[in-house]
Design brief:
Elements: H1 4-7, E1 11-17, H2 29-42, E2 53-59, H3 64-73, E3 75-80, H4 85-102, E4 108-113, H5 121-133, E5 136-141, H6 144-148, E6 157-161, E7 164-167, E8 173-175
Parallel strand pairs: 1-2, 1-4, 2-3, 4-5
Antiparallel strand pairs: 6-7, 7-8
Length: about 180
């Protein structure tokens, strides 16, 4: 098994356990993605947009508009029914196991952004079992500082027509899949 340093250039994926979906409407999706990326890069992890992914695990009460705002910024949502602690732990466990199967035979990082999953005995037992059987680096990280620096409005980008959007902050027009000029 490699040292933590051996994994820094490995494939890095982020699972964000969104415990309270109401916070999503108070955050700027581009800032969230940018802050996650820069925070992890500051810790030495390589975030390659072609090999890495950021996934938010949310309950099914998230609007399609909000989902699309986050998706345009690089954060994919996995909607799951219900939102109880048990259901979230179960769903995060399933997605973590699926990640481990996809990444087998590779050095890979999984960053789990969660305030509480690192304290859940069942989930941490699963993580320890995965780490023993494979060459993965799995790290828990409290997302509070990242989210505190991401306050904004996801409505900052309004849809105009034909897959084009206008950024209400800088007034630039962007096409789906592009980012606004404030990140450039």
């Amino acid at each position: 098994m490699g040292t933590t340093r051996d994994f820094y250039r490995g494939n890095t994926n982020v699972f964000w356990d969104v415990e309270d979906v109401s916070i999503l409407s108070h955050l700027d999706p581009e800032l969230v993605y940018g802050n996650i990326k820069s925070d992890l890069e500051d810790k030495g992890f390589a975030i390659d947009p072609y090999l890495s992914s950021t996934v938010a695990i949310v309950d099914d009460n998230v609007s399609e508009t909000l989902k699309n705002s986050y998706s345009r910024s690089g954060i994919r949502f996995i909607r799951l029914p219900g939102g109880t602690k048990y259901e979230r732990v179960h769903n995060m466990s399933v997605h973590t196991l699926l990640w481990a199967l996809r990444e087998q035979n590779m050095r890979a990082n999984l960053i789990i952004l969660s305030k509480n999953l690192g304290k859940d005995e069942q989930f941490t037992s699963l993580i320890e079992a995965i780490k023993k059987k494979s060459d993965y680096n799995i790290v828990f990280h409290d997302p509070t500082s990242i989210l505190d620096n991401s306050v904004g409005t996801p409505d900052a980008i309004e849809q105009i027509k034909d897959g084009r959007y206008r950024c209400s902050t800088c007034k630039s027009i962007i096409k789906e899949g592009e980012s606004s000029s404030r990140n450039q």
